[in-house]
Design goal:
This protein has 9 helices and 6 strands; from the N terminus they run αβββαβββααααααα. The protein has 2 domains: 97 residues, Zincin-like, CATH 3.30.2010; 88 residues, no CATH class. A 6-stranded mixed β-sheet has the order 1-2-3-4-6-5. Pfam families: BSP.
Length: 227
């Protein structure tokens, strides 16, 4: 997260709420809101991450409307509330389900500067796709928001043109999507997003939108990569 992002924290409304868990234990949640966007931050099981969690919540509130604007579709109103929970036992990095992002406390402690991960997971909340779409594309769009729009100045990951596939998801698919947009129109990802949200994605969309199928596009993209 940039210093520019942190400078906006004074404009956000922050308060502490108390709720009860299923076991009857009281839990304190930090509510961060601005405009119509709200983040509820739960660091009860990882209290040392309170400050980090509050910054993550502020980041989510700031980026809710930005992601919604980047991924619009007709008749769709994007979610504007998220709960962020830090799990001390979780392996891996993070995942989003419905309106909740669960983050590995251990990962954050080892990677305290990885704010892009938060934006990636928040993108999943905004996507709100029905199940059944290609996971590689869903993850690719989330990392596209992260790489192209949230951290465009960060060093780009190196893609192996021999081993890589557009179905690798995440950063590989994100950079492929960015290239397709540059070659075939800035609204390409918006149109793919709309199809996924309507459960109307089909492989033929690549040809319909660009005149080339996905394998032909990937072959052209690979030629731009340095071995």
């Amino acid at each position: 997260m940039t210093s520019h992002t942190l400078s906006f924290i004074a404009l956000f409304f922050i308060c502490v709420l108390t709720s009860s868990s299923a076991q009857g234990n009281a839990r304190s949640l930090v509510k961060i809101s601005a405009g119509d966007a709200t983040a509820l931050v739960d660091t009860n099981d990882a209290p040392d991450l309170k400050e980090w969690g509050n910054k993550a919540g502020t980041l989510c509130v700031e980026w809710f409307p930005k992601i919604a604007k980047l991924l619009p579709s007709e008749g769709f109103t994007a979610p504007n509330q998220v709960t962020i929970y830090f799990d001390p036992k979780m392996k891996g990095v993070a995942h989003a389900l419905g309106g909740k992002i669960t983050i590995s406390a251990g990962f954050v402690r080892g990677h305290p500067d990885d704010w892009g991960m938060v934006v990636h997971e928040l993108t999943h909340v905004v996507q709100s796709y029905p199940p059944g779409g290609p996971g590689w594309l869903v993850e690719g769009i989330a990392d596209y928001i992260r790489i192209v729009h949230f951290e465009p100045q960060a060093p780009r990951p190196k893609i192996d043109p021999i081993k890589a596939s557009y179905k690798d998801a995440y950063k590989t698919t994100a950079m492929f999507l960015e290239w397709v947009e540059k070659q075939h129109g800035a609204d390409f990802v918006v149109k793919m997003n709309a199809a996924l949200r309507k459960d109307a994605y089909k492989d033929a969309l690549w040809s319909e939108l660009t005149g080339k199928n996905v394998d032909e596009l990937w072959s052209a993209f690979v030629k731009t990569l340095t071995p």
